[in-house]
């Protein structure tokens, strides 16, 4: 599992250790999020998970590890919107160039590959180009994103979110071509905003103070510091959020059912959990108040421009509703957890994990 030390990787490792007999060769440059699975040495899954600290960009051990495994799961990527504008070259290299050897070694050695792409490959919805008041905007044909029929609609080159999407799309096409020409057994996963504990970092606590993580961690940080949640360009964009534990069930089904998963691209999301970013902020404010007993802030949100928040050249996805037909037919999988419930367990975790550290960091900076 490459990228095993990240958010999704840590949950997948946990699931594989707790509920299956599989052995995992965990590859990443970091292991903080899976430390609890590696130590102490008397854990029940002792010997079934092995951490290999390496950067796949430049490490000759990669092919040997792929040869040792039956299946490679590739999660490694730069995949945070704040990075797309500020580190566009790293983003393109990470999502396309660095994934090339992984695909090549799997294909040449006859090994199965589950590759993590993104819902971003769909780009904007067709409906986004209709007039604001067009009734067709309400028609699912203009916004539901289907693996085998929706077009991929990207913005212009200087809007660098689409460089991430384009790099992911090209590696999908390459994997598909390896399947068609050389018989590579593959599945491609397109995650739709998977969220939950251990996602990204809290700036200044377990990540850089000036860093900008994805929205769950940004809003958690604001709530922990009791400051208003920042709505980029009004928070009008829409997202469907899925609980990480539901999504991991889908990945496990892919791992365990190669005959039904090979050759497919799968949307993995929860179409029932759609909100605008503004609604997400309001819901998180309410849930955080419920789980902590703290009163909600008087001014819970504040508007910021995307230029101020992310810098020049930011663009957004308007709406992301996954079509669930293929994953439902092939794997019989459906998401279960409501947005309210997943926010309750996630914000309980965030509070328990970070509240004390944030309090200390804030009192230190006031004293200084
Ligand atoms: P993450 O950043 O938490 O995890 C990625 C991991 O890959 C990190 O631990 C990082 O250290 C590792 N990595 C990156 N480059 C590496 C390299 N060169 N060598 C070794 N390790 C490297 O992100 P995540 O949310 O767990 O996402 C995993 C995958 O899923 C990514 O490919 C991402 O594009 C895709 N994805 C996730 C979401 C989501 O909702 N979380 C949405 C769309 C796509
Ligand atoms: N966003 C926001 N405030 C924040 C962080 C993000 O309004 O503090 C918005 C961002 O502009 C986007 C949405 O939240 O519209 C989701 O952002 P995220 O970084 O989670 O990733 P994306 O879904 O865009 O890939």
Q: How would you characterize this protein structure?
A:
One of its GO terms (molecular function) is carboxy-lyase activity. This protein has 368 residues and is α/β, with parallel strands linked by helices. The chain has one domain: 3-Layer(aba) Sandwich (Rossmann fold). The protein contains 14 helices and 14 strands. It has a 4-stranded parallel beta sheet with strand order 3-4-6-11, with helices on both faces. Strands 1-2 form a two-stranded parallel ribbon. Helix 3 packs across helix 6. The radius of gyration is 20 Å and the shape is globular. The N and C termini lie far apart (43 Å). Bound molecules: nicotinamide-adenine-dinucleotide and uridine-5'-diphosphate (UDP). Nicotinamide-adenine-dinucleotide binds at residues 3, 5-9, 27-30, 55-57, 75-77, 79, 94, 98, 116, 118, 191, 193-194.
Helix content: 40-55%
Total number of beta strands: 14
Cofactors, ions and other ligands in the entry: nicotinamide-adenine-dinucleotide, uridine-5'-diphosphate
**Radius of gyration over alpha carbons?**
20 Å
- Percentage of residues in strands: 5-15%
By CATH, the architecture is named 3-Layer(aba) Sandwich
Largest sheet: 4 strands, parallel
Oligomer: single chain
Gross morphology: globular
CATH topology-level name: Rossmann fold
CATH class: Alpha Beta
Order of helices and strands: HEHEHEHHHEEHEEHEEEHHEEHEHEHH
Could you give the order of strands across the largest sheet? 3-4-6-11
* Relevant CATH superfamily: NAD(P)-binding Rossmann-like Domain
Mean pLDDT: 97
Euclidean distance between termini CA atoms? 43 Å
Q: Low-confidence parts, pLDDT < 50 over ≥5 residues? A: none
Number of helices: 14
**Total discrete domains:** 1
InterPro entries: Arna-like_SDR_e, Epimerase_deHydtase, Lipid_A_modif_metabolic_enz, NAD(P)-bd_dom_sf
GO molecular function: carboxy-lyase activity
Pfam families: Epimerase
Protein name: UDP-D-apiose/UDP-D-xylose synthase 2
């Amino acid at each position: 599992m490459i990228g095993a030390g990240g958010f999704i990787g840590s949950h997948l490792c946990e699931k594989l250790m707790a509920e299956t007999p599989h052995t995992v060769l965990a590859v990443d440059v970091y292991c903080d999020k899976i430390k609890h699975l590696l130590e102490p040495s008397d854990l029940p899954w002792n010997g079934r998970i092995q951490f290999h600290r390496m950067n796949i960009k430049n490490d000759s051990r990669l092919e040997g590890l792929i040869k040792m495994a039956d299946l490679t799961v590739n999660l490694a990527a730069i995949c945070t919107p704040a990075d797309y504008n500020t580190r566009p070259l790293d983003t393109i290299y990470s999502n396309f160039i660095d994934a090339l050897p992984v695909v090549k070694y799997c294909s040449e050695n006859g090994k199965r590959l589950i590759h993590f792409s993104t819902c971003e490959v769909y780009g904007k919805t067709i409906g986004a180009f209709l007039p604001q008041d067009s009734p067709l905007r309400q028609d699912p044909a203009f916004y539901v994103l289907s693996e085998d029929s929706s077009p991929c609609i990207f913005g212009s080159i200087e809007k660098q979110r689409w460089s991430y999407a384009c790099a992911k799309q090209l590696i999908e096409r390459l994997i598909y071509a390896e399947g068609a020409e050389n018989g590579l057994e593959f599945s491609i996963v397109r995650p739709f905003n998977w969220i939950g504990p251990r996602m990204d970092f809290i700036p200044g606590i377990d990540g850089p103070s000036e860093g900008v993580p994805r929205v769950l961690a940004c809003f958690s940080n604001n709530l922990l510091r009791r400051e208003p949640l920042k709505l980029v360009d009004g928070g009008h964009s829409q997202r469907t959020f899925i609980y990480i534990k539901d999504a991991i069930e889908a990945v496990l089904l892919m791992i365990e059912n190669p005959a039904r998963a090979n050759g497919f691209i799968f949307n993995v999301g929860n179409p029932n959990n759609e909100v605008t970013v503004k609604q997400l902020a309001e819901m998180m404010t309410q849930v955080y108040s419920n789980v902590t007993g703290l009163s909600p802030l008087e001014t819970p949100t504040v508007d910021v421009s995307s230029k101020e928040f992310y810098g020049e050249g930011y663009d957004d996805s308007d709406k992301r509703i996954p079509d669930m037909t293929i994953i439902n037919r092939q794997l019989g999988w459906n998401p279960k957890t409501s947005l309210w419930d997943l926010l309750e367990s996630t914000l309980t975790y965030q509070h328990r994990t970070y509240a004390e550290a944030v309090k200390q960091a804030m009192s230190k900076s006031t004293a200084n």
